[in-house]
Specification:
CATH class of the largest domain: Alpha Beta
Enzyme class: transferase
Protein name: Oxygen sensor histidine kinase NreB
CATH superfamily of the largest domain: Histidine kinase-like ATPase, C-terminal domain
Subcellular location: Cytoplasm
Largest sheet: 5 strands, mixed
Strand order of the largest sheet: 1-2-3-5-4
Radius of gyration: 26 Å
Strand content: 15-25%
CATH architecture of the largest domain: 2-Layer Sandwich
CATH topology of the largest domain: Heat Shock Protein 90
Shape: elongated
EC number: 2.7.13.3
Structural class: alpha+beta
Cofactor: [4Fe-4S] cluster
């Protein structure tokens, strides 16, 4: 009798454990689906941004160039002034196309690696917007391509936010990578933001950065107050070097 009771209790205990494991698996699958949808949304937002840049920038320049050329064709003999304006439009369209291409995937990231790419990004964004961007790096391991792309994209988004939304005049970037930890900090002296804004799902592209970092098993933290700038910190632990994450 006692033996039957023991067996019954053991069966109940195993059944409860099985239910708990099933619930954990279900919860894990739901979290993975949620993360996958958010990553997909990030990609779609990027496509929208590129499409808008092409339509509003290069598209309008080419439309103006076509109108200019059509006018010159109607007039027969090209006016030197109109010809100069057409050449200016063509050169601007070419320059914008090259800039969009470089920002989408700079070749320097593939050819020379993360630090030269960040140096290039800091210089280009700093000169274009007349702000000071300092880069500090301490890498004791070689990061794999995906991790380098992650760091580059987070820095790119953070700089864009600091310039576009925070009106910053100085941005400080620090990248530290060891065999067991990757730390990235981007600090600006802009207008800052409230806690609600920094935690908002759509807040200034922060959700996209959080999703990118979460896909690597890391954390993204934001420290900011109105009028006191903003610091974005990314921490990823584990085996960081090539073949690690």
């Amino acid at each position: 009798m006692n033996s039957d009771k023991d067996i019954s209790e053991l069966v109940n205990e195993l059944s409860q454990k099985q239910q708990k494991i099933a619930q954990e698996l279900l919860s894990g699958n739901q979290q993975m689906r949620t993360l996958a949808k958010r990553v997909w949304r990030v990609q779609e937002d990027e496509r929208k941004h590129i499409a808008r840049e092409l339509h509003d920038g290069v598209g309008q320049l080419l439309t103006a160039l076509i109108n200019q050329l059509q006018q010159m064709h109607k007039e027969g003999e090209p006016d030197p002034k109109e010809l100069d304006e057409a050449l200016t439009l063509a050169r601007q369209a070419l320059s914008d196309t090259r800039e969009i291409s470089r920002l989408m995937r700079p070749r320097i990231l593939d050819d020379l690696g993360l630090i030269p790419a960040l140096q290039w990004l800091s210089r280009v964004m700093g000169e274009k917007n007349s702000i000071k961007i300092d880069l500090h790096e301490q890498l004791s391991v070689n990061l794999d391509d995906e991790t380098q792309t992650l760091v580059f994209r987070v820095v790119q988004e953070a700089i864009t936010n600091a310039i576009k939304h925070a009106k910053a005049t100085h941005i400080d970037i620090t990248v530290i990578a060891t065999e067991r930890m990757l730390v990235l900090k981007i600090k600006d002296n802009g207008v800052g933001m409230t806690k609600d804004t920094s935690e908002s799902v759509e807040g200034f592209g922060l959700s996209a950065m959080r999703d990118r970092v979460a896909a690597f098993g890391g954390q993204l933290m934001v420290e900011s107050q109105p009028g006191e700038g903003c610091e974005i910190k990314v921490v990823i632990t584990g085996s960081i070097g090539e073949g690690g994450l």
